[in-house]
## 1
Amino acid sequence: MLSRTADNLYWIARYMERAETSARLLEVGARISLLPSASGYRNDWDSLLRASGNASGYMAKYGVAEQHLIESFLFFDRDNPNSVASCITAARESGRIVRTALTTQVWDALNTAFQELRQIEAQPRETQELSRLTDWVMRHAAMVRGAIDATLLRNDGYNFLNIGYYLERADATARLMDVKYYVLLPRADYVGSGLDNDQWSMLLRALSAHRAFHWAYGGEITAAKIAHFLILNPQCPRALITCVAGMHNHLGRLAKLYGRATPAQDAVSALLAGLEAQTPETIFDEGLHEFLSRFIREAAGLGAIIHDSYLSGDML
Amino acid sequence: MTTYFNEMYDGDTVRGPYARLGDWTASMPADKRLAKQAEAEALFRRIGITFAVYGEGGDPDRLIPFDMFPRVFTNSEWAKLERGIKQRARALNAFLVDVYGRGEIVRAGRIPANLVYQNEAYERAVSGFVPPKGVYSHIVGVDIVRTGPTDFYVLEDNCRTPSGVSYMLESREMMMRMFPALFRENRIAPIDHYPEVLRRTLASVAPAKCDRDPTVVILTPGHFNSAYYEHSFLADLMGVELVEGADLFVEGEFVYMRTTEGPKRVDVIYRRIDDAFIDPLCFRPDSMLGVPGLMDVYRSGGVSICSAPGAGVADDKAVYTYVPEMVRFYLGEEPILNNVPTWKCANADDLGHVLSNLGELVVKEVHGSGGYGMLVGPKSTKAQIEEFRALILADPGNYIAQPTLALSTTPTFVEEGIAPRHVDLRPYCLVGERIELVPGGLTRVALREGSLVVNSSQGGGVKDTWVLAE
């Protein structure tokens, strides 16, 4: 497969996953704004902007954190490369470039999302309910994902798509957790308080894992349980370990298919082994924020190695 | 008042090939027709078969208008066209091999030397080189118009990279999907093997140094190109990689593409970029599209390029007037298809005739394409004609003129119902080890009432083209 083709497939997955992340953030933000909160909703929106990874871009453009501006920024704004509109457009454009590596169904799912997005953009903003917009994103992300799983050959292209999905998802989960920990719990006396639980529960909702968490653990929400669920529990589809194991699997398949291993396989094995050796206690000993920052850095490093090993086309 | 040949109606009588379409149109009241039209448009948009018009801005995903009313040829009409097109494709290729070799046709005084060797499209870089199987132009798009029951004229030849074949294939798919009954009632020759024939044609001209099943790729300028859909469509149907210049590199005697498994050798490149952009070392140093060193590999037989660099000298509009001579000179046959009578403004006599008859003639730039830079005398205002007169006088060699042809019409769905609209035809002749032609082509239709310009960039649409089986 052409390296450029692999690169585009990888980015289709990353952009679709990123669109979904932005939609989740919007949904959580809308929910937070309905809650009575001691600090007001401003800080919460602020934290969502940070989780979206482009708070500086927003502040440079708008200056103040206001709900309707943030909604517009996260959904419609083409100046924000992580907005739903930017991500879906970029995913579809990558799909158009590698049309030959996709089935009709996958292309159809990508293109339909894009065509509907253009219709949504053409309607007046005030008539559009946020919950319907976020549902719409989730639905189309699921349709693309479903078309990939149901119709695509299990070849190297499928591996690159999955690697993109898992890497983006690992990054999003880590960032969301980091924002919750770092921004929403600045003062020690909040830990273990009712507000703390509200915030953590909001985090679970953001990852569509609220009910799943209760099924898996039951009882009180505690920081240790949540850390375990979102970092170390392979049952949770968005847990860091699930994402890293997924990349490990697909990179392993590539090594087998091509009959040669690259530094990417070593890097993902090391990352996985590191996670498997952790417990909630060791994570909290290291400090959750420190642990997450390190993970985000290591995942980005893995992304760079994958790029050099397969996507850049420069290896000989 | 010019009368135009209507391909469906002879007065009130329906001509043979269209016999079964009368009931079909009767079964389609306006509401059903509009629903079908909307369905077709939605399908085209969903599969992404769109084109962009250079320099216009606006919607980058514009749809080419699709007219559901098919255009029909009988088997015997097609048989004659096919013979004529293949004959022309043979002569054009013989001409190309000749003018990059000994230039016998020039020595024999059958075509002026300056027209060939001073031609912008003449590539010195390949002089003396004979491509595999002696083929320069592997896909010859011959634009044909009809003016009467048996009167067909070649309007121009496209020897470089004629586009539009994806519309031919997709229009057929669309019709079969929307009107399956029509295909049961009419015996319509299939065209869906075109990509396979194209792949076979390309593989048959693999270079001398290729000692294995050749690896074929399509080279595209990229996804911003207006014909990108077609490039990816053909790559997909042929099962070959669609590459950009940056995906290829030269190492030693061969060309390789960058893959996730490392470099992979490429044997045949079906390029959809112009000569000037193939190799920055050989042609334009500022080109970002090409592959440095590609021409050296090509000339030493390490890779084949289709169409071969330099093929453009055969489809120049001034050279066009000599194609009947080429048929006689190389094949010893009389041309089966006629040229449109053409005046070359470079000749003083012709120029005088053109300037005194501008109101009746069509004037074109020698190197123009896409319906740009032309004057349709009878449809133009006095001011437009005078403007063109000045252009011609400033650079006579750059213009040719032809009589305004009474282009045939076929019934076409328009807002008010069904009305005759002018059409042309572009079949795609494939030249490799063998010369092959699928039965059909791209019919372009001028959707504006009275318009004779069928180019998609000028408001033209496309139709499915049927050749009825015996």
Note: Chain B has two domains: 9-336+406-467, 341-403.
## 2
Amino acid sequence: MSKIIASSAIRGAHKLISSAENNWREAMDKWGPKQEVGFPNTTYYLPIIYGILGTPVETLGDMEGVFKKCREYLPPQVDEGIHLPYLGNVLDAGMVTLWAGEMSEAIRYLVDPDFYVTGEEPVGDRIWLGAADDIIMRKRGVEFVDGSAPGFAAIVGAPEDPQVAVDMAHELQRKNLYVFMGAENNGARMSEQLVNAGVQVGWPTRLVSFGPEISAAVFAIGFATRAAMAFGGLKPGDFKNILLYNKERVFAFVVALGPVSDEWYANAAGAINWGFPTIADSDIPEILPTGVCTYEHVVSGIKHDEIISKAIEVRGLKVAVAEVPVPVSYGPAFEGERVRKDELFLECGGSASQAVELCQMKRMDEVEDGKIEVVGKNFDDIEAGAKLPLAVVVEVAGRKMQEDFEPILERQIHHLVNYAQGVMHIGQRDIAWYRFSTAAKDKGFTLDHIGSILHAKLHQDFGSILDKVQVKIYTDEAKVTEVLEEARGIYKIRDDRIEGMTDEDTEMYYSCTLCQSFAPSHVCVISPERTGLCGAYNALDCKAAYEISPTGPNQPVNKGEVLDPKLGQFKGVNEFVAKASRGSITEFNFYSILHSPMTTCGCCECIAAILPMCNGVMTVSREYADMTPCGMKFTTLAGTIGGGVSSPGFVGHSKYYITQRKFISGDGGLLRLVWMPKSLKEEIGPRLAKRAEELGVPDFMDKIADESVGVTEDEILPFLEKVGHPALKMDPLM
Amino acid sequence: MKNDKSVCSATLELLEKTQAEDLSTAFSRADKLKPCNIGGEGVCCKMCAMGPCRLPKAQQDKGQTGVCGATADTIAARNFLRMIAGGAASHSDHGREVAQVFLAMARGESKDYQIKDEAKLMKLAAELEIPTEGRTVQEIAVDLGEMMLAEFGRQEGELCFIKRAAEKRQELWRELGVVPRGIDREVVETMHRTHMGVDQDVRSLLLQGARASLADGWGGSMIGTELQDVMFGTPVPLRSKVNLGVLKEDQVNVIVHGHEPILSEMLVVAGRDPEILKAAKAKGASGINIAGICCTANEVLMRHGVPIAGNMLQQELAIVTGAVEAMVVDVQCVMQSLPEIAKCYHTKVISTSSKARITGATHMQFDEHHALDSAKKIMLEAVNNFPNRKGKTNIPAASTDLIAGFSHETINYMLGGRFRGSFRPLNDNIINGRIRGVAGVVGCNNPRGPHDAVHLAMVKELIKNDVLVLQTGCSAIACAKEGLLLPDAAKEYAGEGLAEVCETVGIPPVLHMGSCVDNSRILTAATEMVREGGLGDDISDLPVAGAAPEWMSEKAIAIGQYFVSSGVFTLFGVNWPTTGSEEVTRFLFEEMEEIFKGKWAFEPDPIKAAQRMIEHIDEKRKALGIDKARERVLFDMDMRREAQAG
């Protein structure tokens, strides 16, 4: 900490705390101490204060104690003459600055409830997103957990030239990083620069317009703090470990664009507590010695075209950038970008036409690596707004390729194609849906590039199982129909094969410790009839992942002696889990919610909970933000059971698992299910109906209550009785 | 003629006066009285009346032994051991005094003291497994006091703070059988073993020396430091001033000198008492000015910012200023010449400890059960003496600003604040080479060499080479006078890497950690560095070194021995007290390294000495594999997954 920075940061902290106190006093005068305050839809209260101090701030009155602490910890100004050591003081000043900022922002939610939009994207002219609610945090958190987003850049201020802002945003997107924006530089704000330049801003494109002022920094730091609690299983108030978790696992950094004010310094000092360094374009003093952050703490005077790579290096982050030969930007950050109707150049599938995708294994001599063939019309042959049928056929060959891997590779098409800027992809198989933007076309994108993407990325990601990839793209109606028919036959064979796999017949299950980067004690074990709780991995995926990377996070687990066939407990699994969880979990049951249920990292798709009065269970999916009959919202549930602990009565699972034969079969199976959100019911409807049929209760779906029936046990029990829900006649659950 | 007695301008100024007035000081006496060569080499045995037997080299070559048959090796080892016993006894008796007062305070028998650092009390209670749940602070403190006091008389088992050391070090001590069983026991046993006709094997003797010294460093001294922190407050960084220029012409100047803060803490309180201030005004003084000398100075500096008048060799000169109303002394390093020199001035030399009576001094027994009353009486004695000043005073102008207060708790905080405090940044910057290593430069003054000069030259050479210096005792005072304890010293004297770290943290390149019992803070800090990781798994792996370049007291030898036995390369200047025996010297300089992975060294030239310390630091860096610049590690997801839970 140079003396100049120290003095400035502490000065900034004094100013910001005074102004936050003023805001608070005004609010107290107006609303009184009992007035509720908080960020929307979160169980983490004001997350920085909650994480660091363990204090939930729920009312204006609760803030008094926190302001007292701010004053207590706020160090005196640095002496102009002979100064005392200041690094510790500056970090404390930074911390209390963030607390004050968080309280100011909470007061803003109260004073001006429409200032921030709710949801993931700007609405009309309202571009400020404010605090991420728990749904966003968990959904996006998964990307941090699995590494598809290695970290985030908190950008304060803005470059003078808006084009620089656009370039910088794209560079960060290409490097898969989230961009959290706040504060202004001489009237310019990067979020506004991007919106004005027509760049899609919002969580889906990873360009998050948090707020217009420096206090928006608390939304970024709050997000990181919640990650430590939600995924790291760290308890509120365990500040040291929450901060170290961030230093070691959340690869974030601050990029300061424009002159650094006292207030910016104070916030940057706060971020250093989390191990997040600051990289500035202006010529401020540097702090190069390491220790609180992994490497340097402040690096300055970096040119705009170098600042992002410099920041990544300073944070100690290794970013793998996909090298894909296409004329548009490419990376996971573009996955969430939409192609709107008015930007449409070509649409295939959806309601526009038929589109189909198929991946097939071929003999080595049948595949010419890198060959891309387009049969039918291409971009040059059509006008903007065109519709074409489409078939994408990927043919792969390799010494380690197996037929089982075909659907896995085929499922990659969705996100791989989506990663291209200006290309939108929805669905899979014969319900695939493509949209291409005029902007992509203008940059030179054509249908061939779908082939280029798939060839390059499949080699990159699956190089250890395949040696050759060729792609055939058809827009010719007759040819598409031909592919479609062949594909449907193949889908059926595959489905039957998967359906035919049972846990009993399979000796080898697979572990998944992908999340251990964030949830160090959590281990998933995935069997054919219990897919991974995040919904992303089934047993075959894991098998393929193991083939691809034999020392990676998916390892074969010999299930060994069957200790309990009903609850699904296996000796080999227990031994594996004990080791992989570093002793924190010694046993779990695959098919039970009551007895030693499986743990969750916190990124499960759904959480099931028992409803004792109804003698059944409910399940709720991540997207459903409201109250449920177990008395907790999804986010509270996730907060309770996440972080790698086994919580009897609760279990995290995937949506798909609900309709698998082993769904809580140890406790009575699917017929125990008495409540689920309507949206989830609709989403899995067809499979649910089929499974209910198998169980001999064809109208079972209508017997499951949802929020239209009620959100308490008292409300739904009469309904269950009325429809004669089978759970009521089952053995007592407890 | 240039006076080479000192490099301290205030000292030189007053020495001129003493020379002009033909006053005797340690400086002049050192000139007149040459050291005894044979005693200096450690080969004079006066343990029994068959001797004294003197065995210089020439006698040894003739095969001569003592009358009892003791070889020069045995004699040198026994003498060395008795120095350790003397030093350990002194520190430990200080620690015992503190523990007694602490217990009296906890029991409510000494109402003027109180617990100032409750957090540290609770931390110690947790460390020592003293139950805290549902108990009052007082009850916990009584348990702690009793437990600490029991360490002195303990007869078996292990001292409880031994567990603070790195695991590997503890194992090594246990293997060697040098874990102290009780503080007093080890001192007594050392005296017994060195009696005529008992332990007569160099290795056996010197291992007992290790055990007795550990009873000091990890026992008596550590107890002293820890309990003083709880009772008087753990030091935090603060500003003050140093050198005789801190004395004030128009105020009652009271010098506190000696070692134990029990008394000086109360004098500080008494000095602020309105009645006493009123009395001072009535006598024509504008206020009361307390200043310290020696380690008492360091104690009250660290906790109250009380200015320091000077170090050990300036005690007589403080009186020569003619401005000191009272010099209040307790124990250790107090020269018997003080009452003699005070005769020429109005200064009252007031002895306060029943253990330390000085002929010619005024004795005012300090009663810790009525501590404040005692302190006030002493203070009034000083106030009443103000009108007795004789003629013009000679207060030198020299005084320098300083920053002190670096407990290991402070270091922990200053490197990361309340939320991220740790030794990580220190270790990191040692690993990345900005800081080459850490040196503890401590100890006394000695008029056998130029006062302060050796300290300053060594410390400047070390920081120039990016070695962070930790200090205690009179060495810290020497460097403070030179301005090395100021943040700006980093820019002026330190190497680029060290200066950069100092600028980042806002610290001087030389950190004042307290008095000589506070060398235990350095042990704790070093252990904390080991625990933080990345620098090996024992103190002996760390790139650190210790030195006492102007040593003179037995306490210095005890400190040196416990540092060496804890795995630290420790270098002394002035002279070496075993040179008469090749065997003992070889054992201390070489064999101890094989046994303890730390060793003694001797080098009177400060630059050469600093270079040897740096060489040692570089060797340790090499062994750790941090001698070369390392590639920056960039983390991908797999590496993060591998990381253990934070």
Note: Residues 403-624 of chain B form a domain with the Rossmann fold fold (CATH 3.40.50.2030).
